[in-house]
What does this fold into?
Amino acid sequence: MRVRAPWSWKGGSVTLSDADGSSPFCGGKPAHSARKQVPEGATVEITVCRRNGADGAKKDCGSNYGKA
It folds into this structure.
């Protein structure tokens, strides 16, 4: 299983993922971390889903909005 978490805001987006599903984001693996400049006050939507492999169906998805 893996986790995939796309973040989006007006003018940008980034997707964080953990291919092995066993370590926390940024757990010593640079590929798990992304740096983007999100404008102050921007509304950001974050969706998190788990998948069985890279092309597996999305499962147990949840999403929410927040302000940067």
User: Anything to note?
Assistant: The two ends are 30 Å apart (CA to CA).
